[in-house]
Amino acid sequence: MSQAKPPGLPLLAPVLGGLGLLAGMLLIAEGGHRLSTDPPSIAPVQGAGEPQPASQVRVRDTRPGQPARKIAQDLIAPPPLDPSAIERVEPRPPLSELGLAPRPKTPMPRDWRETLLFRPVATTSAVLEAMGRKVAISGTVDIDPDRTCTFDNTAWPCGQRARAAFNAWLRGRALKCLLPPDADRFAIAAPCALGRQDVGAWLVSNGWAMAAPTGIYAKAEAVARDARMGIFGPPQ
């Protein structure tokens, strides 16, 4: 025989379900109200504070101090170098010999020394006096101060102009000349340099002196003649 169910049980189940649904809705509403009224609490970060001035902000040093990490060594690698394939070549010669101070082709006596001559004064276009010594620039032929040159049927005192140009270039600056120890007793032909500039090369290439037949400035004189510089050009 089946046991009879009490008559109130079918009605009790819907009531309990409705009460549970109502309680869940109330809990959800309460949680939303708290989220809207209470701001979220964020834990302070250690070391955070007021912004520091630009001068006190620490900037990370990105300069290379450690070797860079190698990436894709199998794909990016320096080409193989075969030492046997390297060929050593001679250095390129200078573009011009005019600006260099060439060494004399003939060996100089061993007792000749490089001597500084202070406050040089040109007496002609290639002869100077300094510190009681008279030096003629070797490899050059000076222009006499009384010489007159002609250009396009116009005569002009090229000798005086050449001497003035030499003095203007010197400006009393010290020269380094290769002189014997007793050069103060007589005039001597010697090579001189102003800094790294060879004096004879400057005079001849600018047309203020001529190249000696046995000297080393023949090409420099040809350049001056072609360019009509100095005594080979118009009046100056």
What is the level-2 CATH architecture name of the domain at 113-232? Beta Barrel
Average pLDDT across residues? 77
- Low-confidence parts: none
What proportion of the residues is helical, as a percent range?
25-40%
User: What's the Cα radius of gyration?
Assistant: 49 Å
Series of H and E elements: HEEEEEEEHEEEEHEH
Shape annotation? elongated
Short summary of the structure?
This protein is of the alpha+beta class and 236 residues long.
What does this structure look like?
By secondary structure, the chain is an alpha+beta fold. The chain has a domain of 120 residues: Beta Barrel (OB fold (Dihydrolipoamide Acetyltransferase, E2P)), CATH 2.40.50.90. The chain is 25% helix and 17% strand. The protein contains four helices and twelve strands; from the N terminus they run H-E-E-E-E-E-E-E-H-E-E-E-E-H-E-H. The strands form four sheets. The chain has a four-stranded antiparallel β-sheet. A hairpin with a 4-residue loop joins strand 2 and strand 3. The protein starts with 8 loop residues before the first helix and ends in a 9-residue tail after the last helix. The model has no long low-confidence stretch (mean pLDDT 77).
